[in-house]
């Protein structure tokens, strides 16, 4: 068995009876004594979390499936693990290797093309081996893991690259176009690589400092922040056809209908009347659809990195996302057309926001 730790708020029952494997990073000792940071993904199925047969759990369909995350969510790696080579036993094992089964370490070493003894540390995640695909009668859906939030990340990065394809694309630009991708949003963002870290703030300060040179005063950076605009792009809850009452009656985002702009009076989202107008005006000029989302008053509201960055940096922010179903499942679904719409909306934002923003006069 392979011990695991849950991350964030997953739909853990969806991980049962799936063909699973491992992916992540490994620190490897090189022959010259240096240490290399390598990424690894074992594509073949290595692990499985089997469910208990209905014959041994007769009430599961009436009482619900309620696995204990400590004892029931442990993946099966092998039933007849091979003995570690005698040579390795003679050498002894380091603390890091003692914490992991020799069979797993051997699989990693084969994948990386190194000796087991050269692996000094690992940081791995369990992942589904089934590749993403198109589905539905009209191939209109994307079935995939981790759409939340790789889908928005992809659209934003692709839009940034394509909006700056030639010198002419930015010849009249008065602002800096950038994309910031963070980790650990599902657990609060308070990490070295999360949105709670000063990474983006420091990057913006360095950019302003390198461009302002000696022609601007000390307040140049503060003014740049106040004139900037952040699109906090996460995924959004599309209305579920079997659970439509979980959405506010007049705010039920659908797939294929464009980006969802999120609002919350309690600041769980950072959208304001001004920021939503500016973002929708970009869409309007390019004939792109948008939707609105407000959570029901009798339900809790999730959040994003939008409020974290808006309050931490002091930047105008709009929260938006691509409508999806099965959020936090091992296998999620979104509309194929929405990926194209999101990409076009983000690209249009990069290309036209500066000119739209200059036309807005706020008292």
TrEMBL record:
Please provide the record's keywords in A-Z order. Aminopeptidase, Hydrolase, Metal-binding, Metalloprotease, Protease, Zinc
Q: What sections of the sequence does the record tag as coiled-coil?
A: none
A Pfam family annotated for this chain is: Peptidase_M18
Annotated catalysed reactions: Release of an N-terminal aspartate or glutamate from a peptide, with a preference for aspartate
Record-linked CDD domains: M18_DAP (cd05658)
**Key word Transit peptide present:** no
Q: Which InterPro entries match?
A: Peptidase_M18 (IPR001948)
Domain of life of the native organism: Eukaryota
EC id: 3.4.11.21
What PANTHER family does the record tag this protein with? Answer: ASPARTYL AMINOPEPTIDASE
The family annotation for this protein states:
Belongs to the peptidase M18 family.
Put simply, this protein is called: aspartyl aminopeptidase
Q: Which organism is it from?
A: Hibiscus sabdariffa (roselle)
